[in-house]
Amino acid sequence: MNQDQLKKLVGEKSVEFVEDGMVLGLGTGSTSEYMIDALGKRIREEKLNIIGVTTSKRTARQAQSLGIPLKSVDEVDHIDLTIDGADEISSDFQGIKGGGASLLFEKIVAINSDKVMWIVDESKLSPKLGSFPLPIEVIPYGSQKIFDRLEKKGLNPKYMIDPETNERLRTDSNNYIINLHLHEIDHPHTLANYLINQVGVVEQGLFLDMVNTVIVGRQDGPEIIQVKR
Ligand SMILES: O=C[C@H](O)[C@H](O)[C@H](O)COP(=O)(O)O
């Protein structure tokens, strides 16, 4: 199986955890797209009563096209389960997310969820975080000052570029993303605290102590890992 087939495998596997009546956080990205397709199919075929809370405009468009009823995070009193992709997962189940620029809404939905599930192909696993660039969302005003500070600190920042316009990418909230090319993150909690305390940083892509279940797409089938918290 290639990477795409592994993503489909875990996307389809994850919706087996969905129960009638659930409020579900719907992640963003190519793996989540497979999950949302499979969810749409289950809702249609089994006439399930599901409310979706989306994590991006892109996911909202897909869910709407499949007829999945949606509410915003502020309109629900709880979210039973959020299913989302991830860019990198360490051996102690910390994660980097935001490679698709949706980390802000993804984190808001995740921290308001009773349970969080990540679905990834096996290439996303690594002993330590950092091989995937760490995205941080910053408001445009003053962003160059943040960029300069990060550079001075040796964090190797680069603006995320929109491949369609070749300009700095704008998130759903009209902010910029700065990617930190770090290669290895020794102390994720310390780094997360430093980044979130920079004025102008809206959110950062380290998702720490957050996931309850990981489904990994492997050649011999999906592996389901329950993370002890
Ligand atoms: O902002 C994007 C999200 O964090 C995605 O969940 C992450 O980038 C994984 O995406 P994909 O499933 O396309 O690899």
Commentary on this structure:
The protein is globular, with a radius of gyration of 17 Å. Strand 12 (213-218) and strand 13 form a beta hairpin. The chain is 29% helix and 25% strand. The chain has 229 residues and is of the alpha/beta class. The protein folds into 2 domains: 3-125 and 208-226, Rossmann fold (3-Layer(aba) Sandwich); 134-203, Alpha-Beta Plaits (2-Layer Sandwich), CATH 3.30.70.260. The strands form 3 sheets. Strands 2-1-3-6-12-13 form a 6-stranded mixed beta sheet. A 4-stranded antiparallel beta sheet has the order 8-9-7-10. Helix 1 (3-14) packs parallel to helix 2 (30-46). The chain binds ribose-5-phosphate. Ribose-5-phosphate binds at residues 27-32, 84-87, 97-103, 106. Substrate binds at residues 28-31, 84-87, 97-100, 124. Belongs to the ribose 5-phosphate isomerase family. It is an enzyme of class 5 (isomerase). Catalyzes the reversible conversion of ribose-5-phosphate to ribulose 5-phosphate.
Main β-sheet, spatial strand arrangement: 2-1-3-6-12-13
Quaternary state, please?
single chain
Structural class by SSE content: alpha/beta
What are the bound molecules? ribose-5-phosphate
Shape: globular
What is the CA-based Rg, rounded? 17 Å
CATH class bucket of the largest domain: Alpha Beta
Total strands: 13
* Mean pLDDT rating: 98
Q: Which second-level CATH architecture of the largest domain applies?
A: 3-Layer(aba) Sandwich
Query: What percent of residues are in strands?
Result: 25-35%
Count up the helices: 6
Largest sheet: 6 strands, mixed
Helix content: 25-40%
One letter per element, helices H and strands E, the order comes to HEHEHEEEHEEHEEHEEEE
List unreliable stretches of 5+ residues.
none
Distance between the termini: 32 Å
CATH topology of the largest domain: Rossmann fold
Integer tally of domains:
2
